[in-house]
Amino acid sequence: MSDSFPARLHVLMARDAPVGVVIRRGPSKRAATFLWDRRTDEFQLGQWLRGRIYGRRCDLSPDGKYLLYFAMNGRWDAESKGAWSAVSRAPYLKAIAMFPKGDCWYGGGLWTSNTTYWLNEAGHQLVLHEVLHDTDEVRRDRQYQPDPQRNRESLGVYFPRLLRDGWTLVDSDHTFRRHWIDTFERPLAHGWVLRKRAHSQFDSAPGRGSYWDEHELVHSESGCAHRRLDWEWAERDGDRLVWAEGGYVKSADITPDGLDQPKVLQDFNDIAPKRTRAPY
């Protein structure tokens, strides 16, 4: 990723608590996490990582206390084997449970309760995790299987997470061999609908990864539509809409006419890496 591009953001929102975690990427070999207090819209730095965090393979526990993430730093001879899944106390990255992977197939997972989680892996030796260390605070859910598991990478976590959190899959366009589009929707206030087109593309434009989203606001009765190509993430948060655009997290109230005046909640662009310690 070039420094000329804005910070890339992916956001996880706790289902049962007014908090979230912002995963910031940029430059391409740096990533950071931030705690988002959605009551006050204050953001607190978690930790930086010299490597990459795959946001679409991450999940936040329903109570917002634990982060499950998949990361890669390419140090293949290290204890982490260069790519790993881990459980940490949000918003920090220091692992309380660490599962070396050694490649970027599968990885990450989903929370099935506040203290149980599923790891994204297939049932043969080449794509299983190892166990570097574990914890009694939370435990693996070995019974759960998302239905269906879309593929070996991000969509096997991301799509089940969207469906679990209130989105509905309304269309899948796999006409083109190297570019697939899956369309999800969720209702908003005043008859508006948020539409998310999730792209899986091998030859995406500079500044985008293989997986990227675009969004659209559509009125269910009038059919009025507002396309938002620059929103890389968007979600409903009570009576407002929140989204990531150009390295900013923004919000706006939902009105009968659409969105009220947008507010910038945080600019994540000009943030220098800083060494921080997890308080545990």
Structure write-up:
- The protein is 4% helix and 46% strand.
- By secondary structure, the protein is mainly beta.
- It has one domain.
Topology:
Blueprint: E1 8-13, E2 19-25, E3 31-37, E4 42-49, E5 52-53, E6 59-60, E7 66-72, E8 83-89, E9 95-100, E10 109-111, E11 116-119, E12 139-140, H1 155-164, E13 168-176, E14 179-187, E15 192-201, E16 211-219, E17 225-228, E18 231-237, E19 240-245, E20 248-255, E21 258-259, E22 263-267
Parallel strand pairs: 11-12
Antiparallel strand pairs: 1-2, 2-3, 3-4, 5-7, 6-7, 7-8, 8-9, 10-11, 13-14, 14-15, 15-16, 16-17, 18-19, 19-20, 20-21, 20-22
C-alpha termini separation: 32 Å
Secondary-structure element pattern, one letter each: EEEEEEEEEEEEHEEEEEEEEEE
Number of domains: 1
Helix content: under 10%
> Which ranges are low-confidence, i.e. pLDDT below 50, for 5 or more consecutive residues?
none
For the largest beta-sheet, the strand count, sense and barrel status come to:
5 strands, antiparallel
Please report the total strand number as a whole number.
22
Percent range for β-strand residues = over 45%
Structural Rg:
18 Å
Keywords, separated by commas or semicolons:
280 residues; 22 strands; 4% helix
